[in-house]
Design goal:
Strand content: under 5%
Number of strands: 6
Mean pLDDT: 79
Structural class: mainly alpha
Distance between the termini: 64 Å
CATH topology of the largest domain: Na+/H+ antiporter like fold
Radius of gyration: 26 Å
Strand order of the largest sheet: 3-2-1-4-5-6
Number of domains: 2
Shape: globular
Low-confidence stretches: none
Length: 568
């Protein structure tokens, strides 16, 4: 093949095989990411047949990393993280610490250096955001409390990874790496963090205004192509400038460029326009990672592969499970977070690549991480399917699990100062998120008594401080609805969108109070039909209610006007 066609050949082979293997993975109920990694393995030097250009693939992967990190920054929400901060921040930090220690211990047992162990442990501790979001979307729990906790947990992991990407080059000489620096460790860290601080300050103070103004000017031109080009140029340009001027990695520069553009009113359009290109280069990133994998590790070091997989799928998950349960969250939340973290992905590969470049991580370490990633990502959907059966099994057979889930929790019952006899004919409101909060505000305006049942403990504490009756817990558990006095309620409002959990609430409510009026919300028409079969008094679908409200406003506007022509 002519040398000038090497780039085209590598892209064509990588994307073509990624499509084939990704489709096969989907047919097998596996994440497409598994197929992308297998496509890379198929054209790697370690397997027979066509061999792609690894050096070119790695350069394409750098673009993929930049666009992925740009996407992470574009969707990064401090507000979402803040709403679950009490469980997500300490939980993620504790889980990262446990996983890093386990990985470092394994590396030490295998005779690796301390630096290799730290990089290896950090890579094992970071779950894949891509895999998590896809799994939560398939389960329909992305907007639930469990989904917000899992996503917030991964946001903290991403931030820790970003910090590691900043500090590892500076710490490399003291961890046995090959990068040479002058000065003491303290001086090196101070200079590195100082550069990062200057870059961040410039981005927040000047970059946000400039790029918002620039996007508005391009948007006024009316060309979608120019707008897409402007967004990509901003992402890649900021990443390149961060590397050249401040010595910051491409990944970190792209992350902050996404954060800056998120504040623009055009951020949603930017995300929509860049998403297809980001996905294409992300595929090339995973293909390039697969090209670095040596399948011989599976036969040469099977015990090491098993050990790595156990740390990913058992060590991390058990640590997360215990953290969530001890924090007095329900079993379902603990199991969901545990399943969410039982895999590794893109950030692990980025850390491994940096470790290799710095001379900290041996090549075998990257192959072990890839083997663990392929196995854990392949098995992750099955773990999500086991959440329900495992939860029922634990509740039925484990007294310890029941005690851990229902300790002497003051938020799980109404305070003694509440006169339960006065709670008759009230409203039991399940969920106090975006929908439930607005319902609660209207009830307060009309001085209607209500009790809130909410999983988020922080929300319950805030409501009680405001004088609102609230209990913490998962309302699909009969004990929670009992504490919310649904037996004497006039109306039960289910403001959470999970139809499966809503069915359980309806069964409990009908058993305790056959005459209660039940109102529920849902996201899809199929779920609405499912709930209507449960004899629900009212089912509200978002699109239908929005259309009805807009139609009412149109009719009110035209009520006293005469149309110029008959409506066809």
């Amino acid at each position: 093949m002519h040398e000038n066609l090497t780039l085209i050949t590598t892209i064509a082979a990588g994307l073509g095989l990624a499509l084939i293997f990704g489709l096969l993975a989907t047919r097998l109920k596996l994440p497409p990411l598994v197929g992308y990694l297998l496509a890379g393995i198929a054209i790697s030097p370690a397997t027979p047949g066509f061999v792609g250009d690894v050096a070119l693939a790695q350069q394409l992967a750098e673009i993929g990393v930049m666009l992925m990190m740009f996407g992470v920054g574009l969707h990064f929400s401090l507000a979402d993280l803040w709403s679950v901060r009490r469980i997500a921040i300490p939980g993620a930090i504790a889980q990262i610490t446990v996983a890093t220690l386990l990985g470092t211990g394994l590396a030490s047992w295998w005779g690796w250096s301390l630096g290799a162990g730290i990089v290896f442990g950090l890579a094992l501790s970071v779950a894949s955001t891509v895999v998590l979001l896809k799994a939560l979307e398939q389960q329909g729990t992305l907007q639930s409390l469990n989904g917000r906790i899992a996503v917030g947990w991964l946001v903290v992991e991403d931030l820790v990874t970003v910090l590691a990407l900043v500090l590892l080059p500076a710490l490399s000489p003291w961890l046995g790496g090959k990068t040479a620096t002058d000065g003491s460790l303290g001086m090196t860290l101070s200079v590195t963090l100082g550069k990062v601080a200057i870059f961040v300050a410039l981005m927040l103070l000047l970059g946000q205004r400039f790029f918002t103004w620039m996007l508005w000017q391009v948007a006024k031109a009316g060309s979608r192509e120019l707008f897409t080009l402007a967004v990509i140029a901003a992402a890649v340009g900021i990443a390149f400038a961060a590397t050249k001027l401040f010595g910051i990695s491409f990944a970190l520069g792209a992350f902050f460029s996404g954060m800056v553009l998120r504040e623009s009113p055009l951020s949603h359009r930017a995300a929509e326009d860049v998403l297809p290109l980001k996905d294409a280069f992300s595929v090339l990133f995973f293909v390039s990672v697969g090209m670095l994998f040596d399948p011989a590790i599976l036969t040469d070091e099977p015990l090491k592969v098993v050990a790595v997989t156990l740390v990913i799928m058992l060590g991390k998950s058990v640590a997360a499970f215990l953290i969530v349960v001890v924090s007095r969250y329900p079993l379902n939340t603990a199991l969901t977070v545990s399943a969410s973290l039982a895999q590794i992905g893109e950030f692990s590969f980025i850390l491994a690549g940096l470790g290799l470049a710095l001379g900290l991580l041996p090549q075998a370490g990257q192959s072990l991480l890839l083997a663990g990633a392929i196995i854990s990502i392949s098995l992750n959907p099955a773990l999500f399917r086991l959440i329900g059966p495992l939860q029922d099994w634990l509740r039925a057979r484990s007294a310890l699990a029941r005690r851990l889930e229902h300790p002497a929790d003051p938020l799980a019952v109404l305070p003694d100062s509440v006169d339960a006899e006065l709670l008759t004919g009230h409203v039991t409101l399940v969920g106090y998120g975006r929908v439930g909060r607005r319902i609660g505000e209207r009830l307060r305006e009309h001085r209607i008594r209500f009790v809130v049942a909410e999983q988020n403990r922080e929300v319950v504490e805030k409501l009680r401080a405001e004088g609102v009756h609230a209990v913490a817990g998962e309302a699909s558990d009969p004990a929670v609805l009992i504490q919310a006095h649904v037996a004497r309620a006039s109306v039960l409002v289910i403001a959470t969108p999970d139809a499966v959990q809503a069915q359980r609430m309806i069964e409990t409510a009908r058993m305790l109070n056959p005459d209660v009026c039940i109102l529920a919300r849902t996201h899809t028409e199929s779920e609405a039909l499912l709930l209507e079969k449960e004899a629900v008094d009212g089912v509200f679908l978002g699109e239908h209610e929005l259309a009805a409200t807009m139609s009412r406003h149109v009719l009110e506007r035209l009520r006293d006007k005469v149309t110029a022509a008959p409506v066809p």
